[in-house]
Specification:
Helix content: 25-40%
Number of domains: 2
Number of strands: 13
Mean pLDDT: 90
Order of helices and strands: HEHEHEEEEEEHHHHEHEEEEH
Strand content: 15-25%
CATH class of the largest domain: Alpha Beta
CATH architecture of the largest domain: 2-Layer Sandwich
Low-confidence stretches: none
Shape: elongated
CATH topology of the largest domain: Beta Polymerase, domain 2
């Protein structure tokens, strides 16, 4: 389906006050703000109560259900004679945002925003879309989608894509090789193994769901003198991705995804540049 086809479909639903969330390949492009490849279909997540009305609107325009072995009332495909296909994923949330029926989307996974040819759409947020691109047999399209999302939104490529990353000469070319222990900015020191283990354990204890580093593989790289709350972490699967975290030392999981505080997130060169900036007294 083309961008024009997608927008026409979404405008049709808007005319009938039906809200949908874009998933799949078109969600990737909506988040990136540009079309990166052709898409055979449009994946949508919808409130299950809206399925009959959407089905009726499409059937009136020549759409019919496409036979599939795995179709059921909450996941099926409608297509027309021109090759347009819309892949339905429906569910129902209660008043508290709990998924009580249908495709098991978490509520937060349907609250992103993007655009298709400038047309604003609701879509799966980048961190959830990367997660949805795991747990099945992956291909080059999956890797290109995930790579683009991770690069644009500062996310870590899931470990399942390790073979793709290893074979990606373009990715390797843009990651500078760092010495095992490069010279640190003034005031930063390498921790000994015991301190590194203690700092990493505290980070894992504090991280709440939704935090920038939640569920990512990182290692303690350095910490700041006289301010042991500031720790520089290196992303294991992105060697030139570093994050400075100000640990709270509460000894428990934070309840706000903004804590522990992210003081810096970027490449090694960007970290060095940040440390050279004058600091307020």
């Amino acid at each position: 389906m083309t961008a024009t086809d997608v927008i026409a479909f979404l405008q049709l639903l808007q005319e009938h006050q039906i809200d949908v969330c874009i998933d799949g390949g078109w969600a990737v492009d909506a988040l990136l703000g540009r079309q990166t490849r052709p898409h055979n279909d449009l994946d949508i997540a919808v409130d299950h109560k809206d399925v009959p009305q959407i089905r009726a609107l499409l059937e009136a325009r020549g759409y019919k259900e496409v036979s599939r072995d795995d179709s059921w009332e909450c996941n099926f495909v409608l297509g027309d004679d021109q090759g347009h296909e819309i892949d339905f994923h429906s569910c129902t949330f209660d008043a508290e945002g709990n998924n009580i029926f249908g495709v098991p989307y978490p509520y937060a996974s349907l609250q992103g925003a993007g655009s298709i040819n400038g047309f604003p759409v609701r879509c799966v947020p980048p961190e959830w879309l990367v997660q949805f691109h795991t747990g099945y047999k992956l291909d080059e399209n999956d890797y290109r989608d995930v790579k683009a999302l991770c690069q644009q939104f500062g996310l870590e490529i899931p470990i399942e894509y390790g073979e793709f990353v290893a074979n990606d000469t373009q990715s390797r070319a843009i990651i500078p090789e760092l010495p095992a222990r490069p010279e640190l900015p003034e005031g930063w020191y390498y921790p000994d193994p015991d301190d590194a283990q203690r700092l990493l354990a505290e980070l894992q204890r504090e991280l709440p769901d939704g935090h920038l580093l939640y569920d990512l593989a990182v290692e303690v790289f350095a910490w700041r003198e006289h301010a042991t709350d500031d720790v520089l972490f290196r992303h294991r699967h992105q060697p030139d991705h570093f994050t400075v975290i100000h640990l709270s030392w509460l000894g428990r999981t934070e309840i706000n995804a903004q804590h522990p505080t992210v003081e810096f997130d970027g490449s090694w060169a960007e970290f060095l540049a940040e440390e050279q900036r004058p600091r307020m007294a």
